[in-house]
Amino acid sequence: MPMDEKLRDELRKQGIFVTSLAELYNWGRKNSIWPLQFGLACCAIEMIAASMARFDIARFGAEVFRPSPRQADLMIVAGTVTKKMAPQVVRLYNQMPEPKYVIAMGACAISGGPFKQGYNVLKGIDRYIPVDVHIPGCPPRPEALLHALITLQEKIAAQSLRGTAQAPALNPDVPSEYPVPRHGPNDLEPPCNPEVWRPPLIQRDA
Amino acid sequence: MPMENLEQLTQRLTAAIPGARLTLLPNPSPAQQPSLLVDCEHAVAVARFLRDDPACRFDYASNVTGVDWLDKTVKEKTRVTRMVDGVERIFEETREHIEPGHLEVVYHLYSMELRHGPLVLRQRTANRGPGARVASLTPVWRSCEFQEREVYDLFGVIFDGHPDLRRILMWDGFEGHPMRRDYVEPDDYEYEPTPHDQVLEKARRHYPPAASQEQEGKS
């Protein structure tokens, strides 16, 4: 049962700290999101800028860029995902332990961006892995990445241990790994994972 | 130290390497940078000379790239005199013939030691089909290795003598060579809110005008 906010504030003033397990759990998760240290294109430069002193992603507990997917919580897909690189990105995602989150940073990562109609660029990483936050921009400014991180933290804070708002990591039915696409003669096979992404329905006249 | 004249260099090269067919290609554009066309059989010998000759010392191949020249239809007008009803008349005849296309590999060479360059070296393939072969200059300049692989990947030029000729940008098993001018990319167009130029043409093909207007109204 949720506690009365006023009562809790009153208790805090008296030096009694009351919280719920879900709140404590979320507080721990959202303030230590360690990103995976990898970049794909120019957006990565903005990601690096966000981690340096001027923008200082450490203020949000996400400064520990991990060089191994086994130690990372967050995958920042920063840059153009080429068709050649996409299977490796999905594999890295599969190797990350739960709970894990994905931020698609920049126009290329969310849709292919200026290279969308090219022969060698994936039209958005959300075709193969579930994306929590999309950041538009070409490239997005470091503030936009910080905003995405805050958005992700709010998303985590809204999750609960059970019920409809249950964190996906706690639900055994939600897969934590997704099939790695293979290289075909011209495109990836399959071109998208229908469990994660369905093409938008565009009405056409007959 | 300025580089020696390209004509002089060509003369020295033909003297040093018997049988080498060298052509000086002038460049009428503002760049005014002529280049040296070398035949594939003697390309490695010419490259060795350019690297080792004390007056050249081109020790650095900074850039390797490819050019695709498609088949060209050439129209020629000739004047022919013919007897018509006992009177000589001059006729203009236009003849068409197809100049076969080829692929070209361009090398930009510099000398770090003598601080001069660039020297533009070209090789041409016999045709654009199975004869698309040139000599690899990787044995002379190691820096050519990846760039020749790139030319092989995107243009489909086969480099004889390359130690490790594989695709580098596209994956193994990819079909076609995307930088060729007749490359047809797979038709995987997807809806885009603001198509323009070539993409707009594709959009019109996939979404006929009436339907696309209706979509604009909806969105």
Would you give an account of this structure?
The complex is a heterodimer of chains A (206) and B (219). Chain A is of the alpha/beta class and 206 residues long. Chain A has a domain at 34-157: Rossmann fold, CATH 3.40.50.12280. Chain A is 29% helix and 8% strand. Chain A is built from six helices and five strands, in the order H-H-H-E-H-E-H-E-H-E-E. A three-stranded parallel beta sheet of chain A has the order 1-2-3. In chain A, strands 4-5 form a two-stranded antiparallel sheet. In chain A, helix 3 (43-51) crosses helix 6 (142-157). The longest helix of chain A is centred in the last third of the chain and has 16 residues, at 142-157. The relative contact order of chain A is 0.14. The model of chain A has no long low-confidence stretch (mean pLDDT 90). With 219 residues, chain B is of the alpha/beta class. Chain B folds into two domains: 6-68 and 103-184, Beta Polymerase, domain 2 (2-Layer Sandwich); 187-219, no CATH class. In chain B, 24% of the residues lie in helices and 32% in strands. Chain B has five helices and nine strands, in the order H-E-E-H-E-E-E-E-E-E-H-E-H-H. In chain B, strand 6 (102-111) and strand 7 (116-124) form a beta hairpin. Chain B is flat and about 65 Å long. Chain B starts with 5 loop residues before the first helix and ends with a helix. The model of chain B has no long low-confidence stretch (mean pLDDT 86). The interface between A and B is medium-sized, with 20 and 26 residues.
Please give the order of strands in the largest beta sheet of chain B. Answer: 1-2-7-6-3
Cα(first) to Cα(last) distance of chain A is 55 Å
Strand content of chain A: 5-15%
Instruction: Please name the CATH topology of one domain in chain A.
Output: Rossmann fold
Overall 3D form of chain A? globular
CATH class of one domain in chain A: Alpha Beta
> Class by helix and strand content of chain B?
alpha/beta
The major beta sheet of chain B can be summarized as: 5 strands, mixed
Content-based structural category of chain A: alpha/beta
The CATH C-level name of the largest domain in chain B is: Alpha Beta
Output the helix-strand order of chain A.
Answer: HHHEHEHEHEE
Shape of chain B: flat
| Widest sheet: strand ordering of chain A | 1-2-3
Q: Write the CATH architecture name of one domain in chain A.
A: 3-Layer(aba) Sandwich
> Percentage of helical residues of chain B?
10-25%
Number of helical runs of chain A? 6
Q: What is Rg of chain A?
A: 19 Å
DSSP summary, beta strand count of chain A: 5
CATH topology of the largest domain in chain B: Beta Polymerase, domain 2
Report the uncertain regions of chain A.
Answer: none
Report the order of strands and helices of chain B.
HEEHEEEEEEHEHH
